[in-house]
Amino acid sequence: MNFLRAFLLGGLVAASPLWAVYAPIPEQEQGKDLTINAKAGISYDSNLFGAATDTVGSAIWELAPRIAYNASVTDQTFLSASYRLTLDYFDNRPGDKLLDSHDVSLRVAHAFSKSTNIDVNEVFMISRNPESLLAGIPLSPDQSFTRNQLDGRFVTPVTAKIGVVFKARTVYYHYRNAVLGRSLDRTENLYGVAGEYAVLPELKGVAEYRRQDVFYRKLGETKNKSSDFVLGGVDYVVAQKVTLTSRFGFEARRRSAERDTMLPYAEVSAKYDYTETSFLTGGYAYSFDETSDTARFTDSKIHRLFVNVQHSITALIVASGSLGYEPSQLQGRRGQASVDEATTRAGLALSYLPTKNWTISASADYDRIRSDDAVRNMRRNRVGLSANYTF
C-alpha cells in the first residue's frame, strides 16, 4: 500500500489505466469524448498466491473491455468517467478458475476562476487477481479485495504570490476472505492543508500540515492509529517538462494499545518529459506504512525508491520499464522482535503501435521479498503478451 506517496504525487503524475503489469504502457489519444477499447492477452504467473514455498503457477487468459468518457461539460467543468471489466481464466488454479474484476472511476473538476478550482476523484475497484500480493499470508491463498478511494483537492489564492491548498483522501479496504478481512479490513483517512509562496514563477515554497487516521473494522482497539505531519518543501515546474516535488519534516504517530513514536519524514519525486511520448520519473520516500501481519506487528518503517521510464524507440515502438526497491523494518508489538525485509518489484514492456487504434505489448514482471522471517519470503515472475484495440 502506497497511500502517502500517492497523496503527494497526485498532482505530479497523471493517473494511468489499471494494467496488470508494472511498466507503463503507452496510451494513444483518440481525440474523442467517448472511447471504447478491448484488451486481450495471455500471460504466465509463477506464484499465483504469493507463497513462500509450494508455489502454484498458471497460464492466464485475459479479456478486458473498457469504456471511458472525458469531456468539458461547460466552459468551467470537466467530467471523466470510466468502467473496466477484467475476466481472467486460469488453467491451473485451485477453486475458481474464472475471475471477474471491476474498476469504476469518476472525476469532476471545476474552475471557479483562473486560480480557484476544485477537483474530486472517485475510484472503486473489485480485484480478484491483485497486481501485487501481500507477504506472509499462510492461512488463505485468496487475496481478492474491494477498494474504494475518494480524493478531493481545493486550490485558491490569498494574494498574488500566496495560495492555499486543501486536500483529503479516504480509502476503504475489504478483503473477500473472512480471515484476511478480520485482520486487514480498514478505512484510512488522510487530509491536510498547505500554504504556497511563489518565490519565482516556476518555484513555490510549501509549508504543509497533514493528519492521518487508520481505523480497523475488527480489533481496532489494538490496531488503530493516527499521525500528524508537519512538512516543508518546494514544488518546481520548468516549461511543463521538468517537475520536482519535495517534502521534509516529521510524523508523530499514536498507536492504540502500543507505544507512540516519532519519525523523520522525507519525500522527493521528479518527472522529466523529454519528448511528447517519452518520460522519466523517480523518487524516494521514508515513512510508516501498514503491515499485512497485524497480529505480530504494529506497522513498518519503510524506505521507497522508484524509477519509471517510457521511451519511444521509433514512432511505432515504445519501450518502458519500472523499478521499485523498498527496504523496511516491521515494528514488532510488545514482546515481538522487529523484522527487517526488502521488497523489489521490476517490470519491462515493449509496445508496438501499428495504428492509432492498436497497441500490442510484451511484458515481464519480477517480484522478490527477502525477509528475516522465512514465511514472508516471496519470489514471483510473470510474462505476458497482449493486444489492445480502441475505437
Structure write-up:
The chain is mostly beta strands and 391 residues long. It has one domain (3-390): Porin, CATH 2.40.160. It contains 3 helices and 18 strands. The protein has helices spanning 3-9, 178-184, 220-223, and strands at 34-45, 58-72, 77-90, 98-111, 117-127, 145-157, 162-175, 186-200, 203-216, 225-238, 242-255, 261-273, 279-289, 297-312, 317-332, 339-352, 358-371, 378-390. The chain has an 18-stranded antiparallel beta barrel. Strand 11 and strand 12 form a beta hairpin. It is globular and about 60 Å long. The two termini are 34 Å apart.
Q: Could you tell me how far the N terminus lies from the C terminus, measured between alpha carbons in angstroms?
A: 34 Å
Q: SSE string, helix = H, strand = E?
A: HEEEEEEEHEEHEEEEEEEEE
Which shape, going by the Cα principal axes? globular
* Strand element count: 18
What class, by secondary structure content?
mainly beta
Number of domains: 1
Low-confidence stretches: 1-19
Number of helices: 3
Task: State the CATH class.
Answer: Mainly Beta
> What is the radius of gyration?
21 Å
Task: Summarize the amount of helix as a percent range.
Answer: under 10%
The share of residues in extended strands comes to: over 45%
Task: Just name the CATH architecture.
Answer: Beta Barrel
Give the overall pLDDT as a whole number: 91
Main beta-sheet strand count, sense and barrel state: 18 strands, antiparallel, barrel
